[in-house]
Amino acid sequence: MSNILQILQRELVYIFYYFDLQLRQIFWYWVIGMAVGSLISVFAKDRIHGLFVKMQKTRWGLLGIIPACLLGIASPLCMYGTIPIAASFRKQGMREDWLAAFMMASILLNPQLIIYSAALGTTALAVRIITCFLCGCAAGLLVFLFYRDRDFFNFTGFEERESHDTHPNLLIRYLLNLWRNVKATGLYFLIGILLSAMFQRYVPQDVMVNVFGGNKAWGVLMAATIGVPLYACGGGTIPLLQEWLSSGMSMGSAAAFMITGPATKITNLGALKIVLGLKRFLLYIVFVMIFSFLSGIIVNMICAG
Length: 305
Hints:
79% of the residues lie in helices and 0% in strands. It is mainly alpha-helical. The chain has one domain (10-155, 164-304). The termini are far apart.
């Protein structure tokens, strides 16, 4: 019994060591992400959405999917917050290809996640921003091509929710928003670091090289696939990605994971199933998997070159 206790104690020391090391590396990215995300949510969210509404007065046509993607990335809302907003946009006559681009980009990326992803290095950050932007553009383009004369979304029953950011004191309003963000992401962030510490301790590095390394299409496909069940929170997956990349995961595999993860997050899927219906929902899943796989292959080819 004493030997077992000694082994457990030793393993806990190792896990704590790796946990502390990972926490020190990434903690401030999380803090800055929370702070900036709340600033945008409290003071810039309405302006971002107002700019999207003003786009209706322009004659950009299909090219409007580009600013729609950029505004989707800039929006700090989660998917359950984005859908009611999109429903209000649709009532005002917003084009559905623009809405598709806006919503797809909003699902994949937001200001907080951009800051979190900086912990992965400039290359991974650039890959994430570019691939998510292109994914939003592709979604808008496909809706334009195949649903130009038909409704793609069904927002029946979705109404814009009342904002929680209503306190008259701006500082208190900001702090309340910041606290909501901390509660929403803090536990996932710590779980992600714990999983990363356990991964460092118990998973040999050559496993990552064999499964996700190099330019193998199989590694990209595997990364895209595990992104479906594993992704729970953007901040929580950054420690895992950081460890995987340092252990030999290819950048293309990471790109595939960074697309399928948020795009197939269970809470996002629940909301999308309602507004898309079964047929278009299945098309959405197929689109995400194909786009993530092709993105990973292309990223690997570019990095190898």
